[in-house]
Amino acid sequence: MKPIITLLRLAKMGCLSRRPVPTYGAGRVFKRAQLAALSLVFAAAAPSFAYAQSFDAAWQQLQQVSDKLAASSAKVDRARAERDAGEDMNLPELSLNGSYTRLEKPLEMDLRDLNPLASLDPKTLPPALGAALGSIPGELFVTPFTEQDIFRSSLSAMWPIYTGGRISAAQGIHEAQLAEEEQQRELTRRELFTTLVDRYYGVMVAAELARTQDKLVASLEKHVEHAKKLEAQGQIAKVERLNAEVALDNARVQASSSRRQYEITELALRSLLKSADAPSSPLFVAPREPSLPMLAERTQKEHPALKLLDAKEIQANGLIEVERGAYKPLVFLYGNYTLYEDDSLFAKMEPDWMVGVGFKMPLLARDGRSGKVQAAKSALLQARHTKAQTREDLSLLLEQSFRQLQQAEEEYRALASSRELALENLRLRELAFNQGMSTSIERVDAELKLTAVDTQQLGAKFRYVQAYARLMAISGQLDEFVGQTRLASAVGEQQ
User: Fold this and answer.
1) Interatomic CA distance for residues 413 and 436, integer angstroms
2) Which SUPFAM superfamilies has this protein been placed in (predicted)?
């Protein structure tokens, strides 16, 4: 920052010591001088700033490099993927099943356990028949149904055809969640926009204030030198010279603080944009005051916070439908197709495929269905009340920002006459000082008054831009603000 101060100090001291300050007709030459001095500030600040960058270019760059906006976009992508995944709930479920089972013993059937053999008493049979039956081996009466080790594989399918509205409600919730994240991303985008306005133009204001403080230091240094000469000649007392030195020391402290503030604002902008480009779009005052009723209408219709709460309300309604669906039956189609089975009798008896219709009706559940329905209704009421409060807050914020815009513009325009008076006063004091008819103190005081008016006017213009940016962000007219910055840059180049 030292090169900045040196350049400005030498330039101002040269101008103040050689010729009186002229009166500028429409103020264009003075504006050019201010822009030139501001350019010196940015040029001397290198390598902190590399190239000039318009506000439009800075805004486009911020949308590309902002991690906060990228994180919000990632949440939108996640919600979109979940929405797309919810569409699959309408499809049937198909699964491949396989199993291996080892039984304690194979399943068998002994004919001797069935009637009429089971009810026969060998003692009551004729001896010849009893002997014949007794001569048959026992394993001939046993029929095996399965092996002891069973291997099976199959395809099974299930397709819900009625869920009590739970599937459609869940899909509606996913759609509303996507809308919520999209509106949250827009809120993040508008927040970044106002942050950029504060930091972008804050750098320009801090640079101009640093220039003003350095100009003050240069003037007071000249005043101190003049006071020392007057003291040596016995024209003023020692206390007058000490007062001048104290004022100079205080001015140097303020100048150092202004330089530090400039460095802080520059660092904040560089961190936001991830670049070292210098701001080039000037502060401006719009030629026409925006219409408050039009801004209010656009805000109430299109503000993302209200659309976000609309999505919350849709989610709450969907949650109510989901919980109510728990009281309704679930109807589904199902089927099974056997892919592999062993060669047992039981496997031969079992069909290779089967299809059917099933339903499930909960009669008594322990999941607190009634409580969940009531909780969903409370969530719906919460969303509605929050939306109503948000409408009031937006109206208040819009009204406050509009009043701040008017106040800043009125202050900026009212200071024009004060600045004209300060310029004329400085011109006369400069002439009187050069002719020995005015003291250095009077001349410095005149310059300080001009500096104070310039500082107040600069602050008013900065507050105007901030309020204008908030109005455009609230009403969703970011492009309107960018258009005003382009117009201001074009007017500045013509002047």
Assistant:
1) 35
2) Outer membrane efflux proteins (OEP) (SSF56954)
